[in-house]
């Protein structure tokens, strides 16, 4: 029937309007295992109201089996199967054991006892052997046998937990282990399985390891003197003496300087050599290493060898102490006699406070070694060759960087002639350049056509020494030495300075402290005519510039007046001036010029014409007609 009719129809007997007729599930799964559950909803989705039993009642009902009251009794169903990996999950048997290992290459131990732990995993009957890690043992420890089923014999059998017990030996891969004990869980498990355990045994420890754990032996110093107190009191405190050793066996009777160090912490002595520059000796700083030096030896017996490597305490009667060292006295150390002539301030203060002694230094006169400089070999500059005398590996001489930066690209140029008896050489002209940054001189000869002499570079950049200069104290030419008329001797050739660049005069006037007054005056006298001519030229150019400007203004005025009178230039004026100029110089005499101006009757005022003629006048009687004609064009 339709839905609206069904809703209005009353429920009839035997009819049901339920829509869900399935049964609820009574079996569920959790963590991969099936378990039973009681449904709470019945057929049709109705809630089931059942008795709520306690957990104890549920367990009792689960353990009971149904009993038939009639008929033949049936056998109870078998219990549920539980796999081993579920029943024995995370259940491990642990046994404490050890094994003995031979040590054939050690003189301190003949065998070694190594403790291990044997684990038996019940879920898969596998075993593993672990060795605990001991600090500083020197043996790779940890996992001794990885987890696996270990074979028992050659027949294919494997070890089972029934084969393990306390107080027994077990062989795993040809190594015999002694099981001494097990943990409580292992003991309870084996006893629950009906295995009778042997009594536990005591674990055996490694004798060498136990020996290392013993405290170190304490040695008592037989001496009454407390060396530890001396070390703590005088640690890092050293007495320093300055001494010389006179080597009488040497051919030159040399005196070598040394430093004697006396260490107060342990009464040891050290002798160090002071090396001087170019002394010709190997750079070994220590002559005698730090050691106890014997002062007096016992009487040698006939059986005592004459050469020994070390001297023991039984052979020394007395050692050197701080009392044996003093300023102004000689001391013999291992067969060498040193004369102490001074000490440092700490040593003076120590002896004054400890022994009440006041040391005074002894002045030793030592002649400085004579420096012999070999003659100049002609290669390079004198400074470069001199570096060979200072070190085996010569380095370039230091340059004045400040001077090079300040005078970079500053060059003084002079014109010089060669002083020679040959007339051909006397006519040769050279350019001498003095570089202020490096004090070097270069000479260049300009090539002259058809002279028969090849010009070019005559002298490269080099320092030129003055006549009479020596290798020990070389003196070079300076800017003050280069004046007009001076003679410059360059490696045997004499040059006379005849002229100079104007920059030389400017540099000399800006640096009067470098140039003497006489040299500066000679340069000024030489350049005086040149400066006067230059000033006259500048003055003439300035006047010409002013006249030219005034001429242009006058030309503009003339052209304005001509426009006012409507004057048209027909070119006859230019032709007349050109015809009158016979030589084509552009200049005419004053009389001829005035006659031509009167003939053409120019329509401008006479004052303006006279002023224009005065501006075009060159000299006393010559007039440039080109500028005059330009005003009427």
TrEMBL record:
Alphabetized Pfam families for the sequence: DM10_dom (PF06565)
SMART domains: DM10, EFh
Main location group: cytoplasm
One BP annotation, GO: cilium-dependent cell motility
Residue ranges of coiled coil: 534-561
The UniProt record lists the keyword Cell membrane: no
Keyword Calcium applies: yes
A single MF term (Gene Ontology): alpha-tubulin binding
Domain EF-hand: 568-603
GO CC entries: axonemal microtubule; centrosome; mitotic spindle; spindle pole
Ranges of residues in domain DM10: 89-194, 235-355, 408-512
Localization terms from the record: Cytoplasm, Cytoskeleton, Flagellum axoneme
Swiss-Prot/TrEMBL keywords: Calcium, Cell projection, Cilium, Coiled coil, Cytoplasm, Cytoskeleton, Flagellum, Metal-binding, Repeat
UniProt superkingdom: Eukaryota
Protein name listed in UniProt: EF-hand domain containing 1
Phylogenetic lineage: Eukaryota, Metazoa, Chordata, Craniata, Vertebrata
Gene: EFHC1
């Amino acid at each position: 029937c339709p839905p609206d009719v069904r809703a209005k129809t009353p429920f009839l007997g035997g009819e049901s309007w339920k829509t869900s007729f399935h049964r609820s599930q009574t079996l569920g799964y959790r963590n991969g295992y099936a378990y039973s559950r009681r449904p709470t909803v019945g057929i049709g989705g109705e809630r089931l109201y059942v008795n709520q039993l306690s957990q104890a009642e549920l367990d009792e009902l689960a353990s009971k089996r149904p009993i038939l009251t009639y008929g033949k009794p049936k056998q109870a169903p078998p219990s549920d199967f539980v796999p081993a990996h579920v029943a024995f999950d995370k259940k491990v048997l642990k046994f404490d054991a050890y094994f003995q290992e031979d040590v054939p290459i050690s003189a301190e131990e003949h065998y070694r006892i190594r403790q291990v732990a044997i684990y038996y995993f019940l879920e898969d009957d596998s075993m593993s052997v672990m060795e605990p890690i001991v600090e500083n043992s020197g043996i790779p420890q940890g996992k001794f046998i990885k987890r696996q089923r270990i074979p028992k014999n050659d027949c294919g059998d494997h070890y089972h937990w029934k084969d393990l017990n306390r107080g027994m030996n077990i062989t795993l891969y040809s190594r015999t282990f002694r099981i001494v004990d097990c943990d409580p869980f292992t003991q309870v498990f084996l006893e629950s399985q009906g295995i009778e355990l042997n009594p536990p045994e005591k674990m055996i420890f490694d004798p060498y390891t136990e020996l290392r754990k013993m405290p170190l032996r304490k040695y008592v110093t037989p001496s009454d003197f407390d060396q530890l107190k001396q070390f703590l009191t005088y640690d890092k405190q050293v007495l320093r003496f300055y001494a010389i050793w006179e080597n009488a066996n040497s051919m030159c009777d040399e005196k070598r300087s040394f430093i004697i160090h006396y260490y107060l912490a342990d009464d040891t002595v050290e002798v160090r050599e002071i090396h001087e520059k170019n002394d010709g000796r190997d750079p070994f700083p220590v002559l005698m290493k730090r050691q106890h030096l014997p002062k007096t030896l016992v009487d040698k017996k006939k059986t005592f060898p004459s050469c020994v490597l070390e001297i023991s305490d039984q052979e020394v009667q007395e050692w050197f102490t701080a009392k044996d060292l003093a300023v102004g006295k000689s001391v013999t150390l291992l067969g060498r006699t040193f004369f102490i002539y001074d000490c440092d301030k700490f040593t003076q203060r120590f002896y004054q406070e400890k022994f009440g002694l006041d040391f005074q230094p002894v002045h030793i006169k030592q002649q400085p070694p004579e420096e012999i400089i070999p003659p100049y070999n002609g290669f390079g500059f004198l400074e470069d060759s001199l570096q060979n005398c200072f070190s085996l590996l010569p380095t370039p001489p230091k340059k004045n960087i400040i001077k090079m930066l300040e005078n970079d690209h500053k060059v003084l140029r002079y014109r010089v002639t060669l002083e020679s008896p040959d007339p051909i050489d006397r006519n040769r002209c050279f350019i001498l350049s003095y570089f202020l940054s490096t004090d070097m001189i270069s000479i260049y000869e300009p090539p002259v056509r058809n002279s028969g002499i090849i010009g070019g570079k005559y002298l490269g950049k080099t320092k030129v020494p003055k006549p009479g200069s020596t290798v020990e104290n070389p003196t070079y030419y300076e800017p003050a030495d280069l004046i007009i008329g001076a003679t410059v001797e360059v490696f045997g050739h004499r040059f006379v300075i005849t002229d100079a660049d104007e920059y030389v005069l400017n540099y000399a006037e800006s640096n009067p402290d470098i140039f003497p007054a006489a040299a500066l005056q000679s340069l000024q006298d030489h350049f005086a005519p040149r400066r006067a001519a230059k000033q006259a030229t500048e003055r003439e150019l300035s006047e010409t510039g002013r006249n030219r400007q005034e001429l242009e203004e006058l030309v503009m005025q003339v052209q304005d007046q001509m426009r006012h009178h409507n004057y048209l230039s027909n070119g006859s004026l230019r032709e007349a001036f050109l015809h009158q100029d016979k030589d084509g110089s552009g200049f005419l005499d004053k009389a001829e010029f005035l006659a031509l101006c009167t003939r053409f009757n120019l329509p401008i005022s006479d004052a303006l014409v006279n002023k224009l003629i005065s501006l075009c006048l060159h000299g006393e009687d010559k007039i440039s007609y080109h500028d005059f004609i330009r005003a009427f064009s």
